[in-house]
Structures
1.
Amino acid sequence: MAGRKINPYLKLALELGPVVLFFVGYVRLKDQVFTYGGTEYSGFILVTALFIPILLAATATLWALTGHLSKMQVVTAVLVVVFGGMSVVFNDERFFKMKPTLIYALFAGVLGIGLLRGQSYLRYVMEELVPLEHDGWMLLTRRVALFFALLMVANEVIWRSFSTDVWVNFKTFGLPLATMAFFMAQTRLFATYGIEDDSNPEA
């Protein structure tokens, strides 16, 4: 079911705002250490602790305004709570850094299972936005599954091999830019397999 329409700039702010705030908070607090209950916490852990309620508030607001959340938004919120919470509780930033890996692995796996069954699960999520013929959905789903698998590997390599600064920049800028570039690269597929919307009587 489609959600209610809201201002696209407000929708973008609710979706990307928490990530931007995480980046700003990290830049400001990354070199500081905070002591609570006799335990020292890095700026990264503090910002992670603040990011969890901010993301949940933004997600809840988006749901209240639109009446709809995508499965990816729900799964992302759950994994942020679980792995962000584990990072805070165990004072170990590695749990939060693994979160994107698990998100991309989960969705790549789900799409892959659908492909093995001859179905495009991506179609159920994006059909209202991008109406395509069956062959187009199957091709796009294969590409998206591979893209998610590559992002999964990229996240693992970066958080394990590089500094936290590099990972935060990758998460904040690299992942959104890569996603945007990927879908822009699918223009020819959309043109080839796109279906005209005949539901508009004025068309």
2.
Amino acid sequence: MDGSRADRLALRPLRSSDADALFPTMADPEAMRWWSRAPFVHVGELRDHFTPSDGSPWRSWAILRTGEDDAIGVVSAGRKREGVSEIGYLLSRDAQGRGYAREAVAMLIDRLIAEGHRRVFADTDPENRSSIALLTRLGFTLEGRLRAEWRTHIGVRDSLIYGLLAEEWRRPEIGARPLSPPGA
């Protein structure tokens, strides 16, 4: 997604230096409530987390307002098997409520489908109403509940699995242009 752009947003590969802009959000207990890990304590810890590791099935991109270089969030895709990826996303508090998450996740889905993915899914906490609403608006279907799936910083939690098949994907009208094919 190098240089992938929508009208209001751009996605670029996540850099360790994005930790400076995203640390206030990723250190915030309320913002990190639904993550499977506790909030970050030190910006250096977040920089290390953002440094790509060889062999990781996860790829991450910084969400940027068009024309700016400070990250306002992150979208990620983790390859689970051929043609199937799990997605994740987080937006800074001051960027929420403007449709940026929907736009950025739609750009990510476009990319994954262009790469040949047949299925994209997300794992979310049953109490994470914002994430559930986002996934539903994007056309994801609730596929199931995994009981006591995660031991997290807020206790043992269930997971809801939302899935989207490539043939079900209908880009919402949000002003974003489809991504060009990989390598283009």
